[in-house]
Amino acid sequence: MPEIRVTPLGAGQDVGRSCILVSIGGKNVMLDCGMHMGFNDDRRFPDFSYITRNGRLTDFLDCVIISHFHLDHCGALPYFSEMVGYDGPIYMTHPTQAICPILLEDYRKIAVDKKGEANFFTSQMIKDCMKKVVAVHLHQTVQVDDELEIKAYYAGHVLGAAMFQIKVGSESVVYTGDYNMTPDRHLGAAWIDKCRPNLLITESTYATTIRDSKRCRERDFLKKVHEAVERGGKVLIPVFALGRAQELCILLETFWERMNLKAPIYFSTGLTEKANHYYKLFITWTNQKIRKTFVQRNMFEFKHIKAFDRAFADNPGPMVVFATPGMLHAGQSLQIFRKWAGNEKNMVIMPGYCVQGTVGHKILSGQRKLEMEGRQVLEVKMQVEYMSFSAHADAKGIMQLVGQAEPESVLLVHGEAKKMEFLKQKIEQEFRVSCYMPANGETVTLPTSPSIPVGISLGLLKREMAQGLLPDAKKPRLLHGTLIMKDSNFRLVSSEQALKELGLAEHQLRFTCRVHLHDPRKEQETAMRVYSHLKSVLKEHCVQHLPDGSVTVESILIQAAAHSEDPGTKVLLVSWTYQDEELGSHLTSLLKKGLPQAAS
Amino acid sequence: MCLVLSNQKSNMKLYCLSGHPTLPCNVLKFKSTTIMLDCGLDMTSTLNFLPLPLVQSPRLSNLPGWSLKDGNAFLDKELKECSGHVFVDSVPEFCLPETELIDLSTVDVILISNYHCMMALPYITEHTGFTGTVYATEPTVQIGRLLMEELVNFIERVPKAQSASLWKNKDIQRLLPSPLKDAVEVSTWRRCYTMQEVNSALSKIQLVGYSQKIELFGAVQVTPLSSGYALGSSNWIIQSHYEKVSYVSGSSLLTTHPQPMDQASLKNSDVLVLTGLTQIPTANPDGMVGEFCSNLALTVRNGGNVLVPCYPSGVIYDLLECLYQYIDSAGLSNIPFYFISPVANSSLEFSQIFAEWLCHNKQTKVYLPEPPFPHAELIQTNKLKHYPSLHGDFSSDFRQPCVVFTGHPSLRFGDVVHFMELWGKSSLNTVIFTEPDFSYLEALAPYQPLAMKCIYCPIDTRLNFIQVSKLLKEVQPLHVVCPEQYTQPPPAQSHRMDLMIDCQPPAMSYRRAEVLALPFKRRYEKIEIMPELADSLVPMEIKPGISLATVSAVLHTKDNKHVLQPPPRPTQPTGGKKRKRASDDIPDCKVLKPLLSGSIPVEQFVQALEKHGFSDIKVEDTAKGHIVLLQEAETLIQIEEDSTHIICDNDEMLRVRLRDLVLKFLQKF
């Protein structure tokens, strides 16, 4: 029985280190290869020994697909390909291919240079890993091999994010990666056609949330920034270089323009400026409004937002600073935070999720006295705000996507178990499909029953369809033929053609039955009586009386002969081939009953 | 829903609506779909018209009217004479594809291969009752829009009151001098469309990506492939499960800026339609670019200006890139380069955002991230300036000597007309023709006599005949279909037998308004066997590697897809009403008996008979086989190599027993 098997190595009832193994139609595909932000030990990467204990990665996997550049989806890639060892193809979109190595390098630097980790992947490994990448276009059907094909759909979320359809024959799986069902200020909404996959694997970060309107959150954000600036405060917005940073920049830029504000906005240099370049060059991946107007005004060329210099932090007066990284765990954002934390006029806005252990997480959970290195204690007097600008689909969005794709079943990943449980029930109720939520290392097996495509000879098909065009066309018809299976080539042909192609002769099986009939008349007359009887009884068949005295019913031959011993008895010889078996048998039993007297 | 029931003889046809080999417009009837392949607009017709000057030109407005030899001057309002050539003084008109050969409202889809081949789109989608969908890649649509916008702008900003039509009268046209006398299809010539029509036409386009499989009505699949000629340019595969047409249009194997051509996917075609080869088969594009640069440098060094009539997108990107590398070494750093077009800015901007459609080198630059084309740097350093028109900012910035890129390459409208008038009188200046679409001599005719130098460096990167024959050897289509121009050497070089398509079997050629029946031998169709039916099949191995299974199944056909389902369980006839109702649902279940094959080994057969309780068995040899006699049952079985004949009394039980015994030795089909 064919089946689809899914095993999450990461992101099973969890957010982080997304990595899902899918076996479909005899092919093995790995979806994403991420790292976990909450761990610094072995658990930060997916457990590839699940595969390697049975052999090499390259032998097992037919391909790897990366949905987008966030590190929890691609952060383990160089480790996976260069240190564990994988030489097969890795598929991702062009923007992901462009941006992913930069984030990997950034990640490596923090891990190795700042935290001093040994045995981490190197810059060269990132380069070597990226050499294995094959870029895909949206909607392009990529033939991984003769049987396995993949296709990318727009996912919103971040620049270049894609959902992927994985297809073998008539079986298919769709993996959403992270996606957003509502367009925002710089990206469009995810979209997929009614592709009816056997299985939809969807993220479920916001499985239970129905978010209030984005407009409200944006207004709230702007109000807070505005108030802080008005009272002469400094606003720190820790961000990751790509993604929400651009969204918030566009937001502030347009607000500053509209309100004619003068307080400077800075963007910490390095990655972010570069990031804006990517957005400019990959503008075809942004939302329709930006694409339409980019010639007149490129939204990623900010008028009000200037590059930040470390010395600016001590400038008097209000300012807004975007600084990396987003969880205040290191780097410039943390430096600025330390400078500004003591002043209650200042404000820090955390626009995204923070992992446990980071300064970001601590202040969000209400801690106001932080122990810094060197036993220093930092008292936080500045205002701390949290605002979710994550570009994930909420429960409504997830349901919407399920409705769009019309899968036969759904599997949830990239979310918390409790919330998944809720969404699972909702999906099962609303769509009447089964929904799974395996934990890491747990395998879900779905039996499938794919139909088998074969080539039917046009002659045979048309013979049938021509009959189908008769008045009774609505009625389905029975088709009879022979399926020839040679290697993986299946052809359905007429039996005659099958015999001919195989160089076989037909074996004719014929029956001749003697039916004794009490009739003293001459043979010709007996035959005549048989003819008129059958003619009147078998109205649906073609009954003929031939010049040589014999009678035919369709292709069945009936001859009358004298009985060698009894002149009062005639012998009817009824002769038919195996193909006329039903009618032949029917005829003999009919004749055995004798001829009606009235017929004479 | 439409039912596909095609003859084994081909009913696949190609309707050829354009006679221009590089601006094709064909309609393919493929299975049940009607597919238009490109809709190119032949603009060479405009060469018969007087230029539209942007600034009043005393020279052009004072050209003498033309009169017949007998002095009859009734056409002098419509026709003007310039240096022995006669031109129509009217709004320029374009030669449309044939609209009468096939009812264009029946066209289901239009496939566009590149932005040059879509210029007739508004005429087709807006005026023929077309209700289908147009498919094209994003760069094709965006740049196509720019080309159309420029064209409309060029024509609309110089309103011309006069629209000449008298000369088109067949009886009058005969009297005119060449080339007007020989102009073809003049009755189909039309004025330019409006921006409103352009927008409406473009709104019917659905964007597609390379290698995207697009299903049409369940019967046909179309796929665009990179053709290497221009940003987003495509060839198309049109296929069903057992037939494949490749449509090759405007392809290039040279490495310029676009993604390389996808050749492998063209393999195994039944028919390959080949259009859009190079128009200058004898010129080497690389050599031409070199000549372009050196002539340009020579002119400006001598204090002259250079005029480059061009389209706002395409080769201009490559020329700017060459100049970028060449300017400093040639000491041209101080010479201003101007690019004047209503869409100049858009074109330069758009070129930078299609990373995914570019060649590998340019993609790599985007990954850095840097703009893929160096003209960004030329603009940044003020070496290249662009203007929407020569009015406005340009007139104040304008410094000579300089190099001006501007349209239209026909020299009949656009800012180029002004520069021809302005610079034509000085031999210091040079006009360099790089676009291959118009004969440069004809283009120059209304400007004669000219003092300025004219250099002809046509750059046409499309396939030449050597590349074509290599390509055909590589992809091996069963049949090639192409415009008739490609099946003979060019008229001017009739001895060059190498300048034509050479393939076996010879290419089928078409000309405007012809209909070709395409040679297909369809033998198979795809059908799906439902899993329940598949499970019930009993395959048996007939020969090593070949298995057979007899199939009796119910055929369902919907939306051009065929499906085989298991036959319903035979319901026992229970008579009366019930049976009647049941028979409505059951297909016509006259169960066909399979064919038989094999032979019966007599000895084993006799053993089998004995095992089943027959006794008194006698076997006689005959010429062709054996006769087995069951004396007790008065039954005789003739067994030969390919036949068995059971002759018995009317004892159905006996007959069926014997039948089943015989069948055990035979294979069913």
Automatic annotation (TrEMBL), chain A:
Compartments reported by the entry: Cytoplasm; Nucleus
Database matches in CDD domains: INTS11-like_MBL-fold
Major subcellular location class: cytoplasm
Keyword Cytoplasm on entry: yes
Cofactor: Zn(2+)
Annotated ranges, domain Beta-Casp: 245-363
Keywords: Cytoplasm, Hydrolase, Metal-binding, Nucleus, Zinc
Oligomer and partners: Component of the Integrator complex, composed of core subunits INTS1, INTS2, INTS3, INTS4, INTS5, INTS6, INTS7, INTS8, INTS9/RC74, INTS10, INTS11/CPSF3L, INTS12, INTS13, INTS14 and INTS15. The core complex associates with protein phosphatase 2A subunits PPP2CA and PPP2R1A, to form the Integrator-PP2A (INTAC) complex. INTS11 is part of the RNA endonuclease subcomplex, composed of INTS4, INTS9, INTS11 and inositol hexakisphosphate (InsP6). Interacts with WDR73; interaction is required for the assembly of the RNA endonuclease subcomplex in the cytoplasm.
Family annotation (PANTHER family): CLEAVAGE AND POLYADENYLATION SPECIFICITY FACTOR FAMILY MEMBER (PTHR11203), INTEGRATOR COMPLEX SUBUNIT 11 (PTHR11203:SF37)
Protein name: Integrator complex subunit 11
Native organism taxonomy: Eukaryota, Metazoa, Chordata, Craniata, Vertebrata
Automatic annotation (TrEMBL), chain B:
Similarity-based family: Belongs to the metallo-beta-lactamase superfamily. RNA-metabolizing metallo-beta-lactamase-like family. INTS9 subfamily.
GO biological process terms held by the UniProt record: negative regulation of transmembrane receptor protein serine/threonine kinase signaling pathway; regulation of cellular response to growth factor stimulus; RNA polymerase II transcription initiation surveillance; snRNA 3'-end processing
Keywords noted in UniProt: Cytoplasm, Nucleus
Domain Beta-Casp stretches: 316-444
Disordered as annotated region, ranges: 559-584
Primary role: Component of the integrator complex, a multiprotein complex that terminates RNA polymerase II (Pol II) transcription in the promoter-proximal region of genes.
SUPFAM superfamilies, per database record: Metallo-hydrolase/oxidoreductase
Assembly behavior: Component of the Integrator complex, composed of core subunits INTS1, INTS2, INTS3, INTS4, INTS5, INTS6, INTS7, INTS8, INTS9/RC74, INTS10, INTS11/CPSF3L, INTS12, INTS13, INTS14 and INTS15. The core complex associates with protein phosphatase 2A subunits PPP2CA and PPP2R1A, to form the Integrator-PP2A (INTAC) complex. INTS9 is part of the RNA endonuclease subcomplex, composed of INTS4, INTS9, INTS11 and inositol hexakisphosphate (InsP6). Interacts with WDR73; interaction is required for the assembly of the RNA endonuclease subcomplex in the cytoplasm.
Pfam family, one: IntS9_C
GO CC, alphabetical: cytosol; INTAC complex; integrator complex
Subcellular location: Cytoplasm; Nucleus
Annotated protein name in UniProt: Integrator complex subunit 9
Organism per entry: Lynx canadensis (Canada lynx)
